[in-house]
Write a structure and sequence with these properties.
Blueprint lengths: L1 E4 L10 E4 L9 E10 L2 H8 L16 E9 L11 E4 L36 E5 L3 E3 L6 H5 L2 H14 L7 E4 L5 H12 L3 E6 L2 H10 L3 E4 L5 H8 L5 E6 L6 H7 E9 L13 H7 L2 E4 L5 H12 L7 E6 L3 H9 L6 E5 L1
Parallel strand pairs: 8-9, 8-11, 9-10, 11-12, 12-13, 14-15
Antiparallel strand pairs: 1-2, 3-4, 3-6, 3-15, 4-5, 5-7
Length: 344
């Protein structure tokens, strides 16, 4: 099969569109013919060698968000058949030991992730444990399904399992044009929360309103904390959902009201953050919560919610697999809203 693979870290020049062996399923595995794969920032971060997940090895085929059609099934697979249209849960937590991808389920150690630590969807075919594929409704395109896994599970876990967001609360969501925030805005609105979204351009703010955000702000020109206070009659928001990190950490804390929660699941603007006032944090009962990896049992319910309708998949653009370098350059330039897709 053809795959986009790299053998050493570096710039886009290290990507090679080359012939690689077809994956072969173990007893409880399936092979998925890839129809679409969504890009994630980790694809570029690991390719450059800026950071790698524990257990990462070279050569590597990236692509965590995969949707396609089952073409082979292992001898002991039950409930999945050749021809099934599926989306893939990339986390390898909870995988049967009989799988070729088993033994990688340590959530706080070397957690295996399809496309991050083992070969993923930048290819014509992908090996997946049968337990980690979910049927895609016929009314949904496989391209739309490919936007779901990493971003929507990250958002759902952070908002609800970690942050405890409930109906009637107010949540601020940064970087509204990113895939995680597109998912977070829609999950929060679906749950009955009011969303205040920030982004780096006015165009992305407008798109966030179309997704259901009640208010938006350009966070490069506006006063994030002051804006949040004004919209909540001085009370502050109940939660901030943040994966930006350094750039907006201080304003995020001051945007929170009494007992507010800052839930962080990323560090795209830097890994260090300063708490501008410990006094404000302890006097106001502020909670700073790290969002850890989602659990296997969370994927199915989140997928059912997504399939229930009312969600926008927000596909920004589609590239041929052979043009993965161009797709990654677009992502690195933050010149997108939603997800960038690759198709073999």
């Amino acid at each position: 099969m053809k795959a986009m693979r790299y053998h050493e870290p570096g710039g886009p020049e290290v990507l090679r569109f080359e012939e690689v062996p077809d994956p072969e399923p173990g007893p409880v595995d399936v092979v998925v013919d890839v129809v679409a794969t969504a890009l994630n920032r980790l694809d570029v971060v690991q390719r450059n060698g800026w950071f790698t997940m524990p257990g990462f090895t070279l050569p590597h085929i990236a692509g965590m968000d995969v949707a396609g059609v089952v073409s082979e099934v292992g001898a002991e697979v039950d409930g999945v058949a050749v021809g099934d249209r599926v989306v893939v849960d990339p986390s390898l937590a909870g995988v049967d030991d009989r799988s070729k991808l088993g033994g990688r389920g340590d959530l706080y150690g070397e957690l295996g992730i399809i496309g991050a630590t083992v070969d993923g969807g930048y290819a014509e075919r992908c090996l997946v444990p049968a337990s980690h594929v979910y049927p895609v409704p016929h009314a949904m395109s496989l391209e739309a399904a490919a936007t779901f896994p990493t971003c929507y599970l990250t958002a759902a876990h952070a908002l609800f399992d970690v942050g405890g967001l409930t109906a009637g609360e107010t949540v601020m969501i940064h970087a509204a044009g990113s895939g995680v925030s597109v998912a977070g805005i829609q999950f929060a609105v679906n749950a009955g929360a009011t969303v205040l979204a920030t982004a780096g351009t006015d165009e992305k703010c407008q798109r966030a309103l179309e997704l259901g955000a009640s208010h938006t702000l350009n966070n490069r020109t506006g006063d994030v904390a002051g804006w949040a206070r004004e919209l909540t009659a001085g009370a502050g928001v109940d939660m901030v959902f943040d994966h930006v990190g350094t750039a907006l950490f201080g304003p995020s804390l001051f945007a929170l009201g009494i007992g507010g929660r800052l839930v962080n699941c990323g560090n795209s603007s830097g890994d260090e953050a300063v708490i501008p006032s410990l006094g404000y944090v302890f006097h106001s009962g502020i909670k700073i919560l790290g969002s850890d990896p989602y659990r296997p049992e969370e994927f199915g319910p989140a997928w059912e919610t997504f399939c229930g309708g009312g969600f926008t998949s927000a596909v920004d653009s589609v590239f041929d697999l052979a043009d993965a370098a161009d797709a990654q350059a677009k992502m690195l330039a933050s010149d997108f809203f939603g997800k960038i897709l690759l198709k073999p």
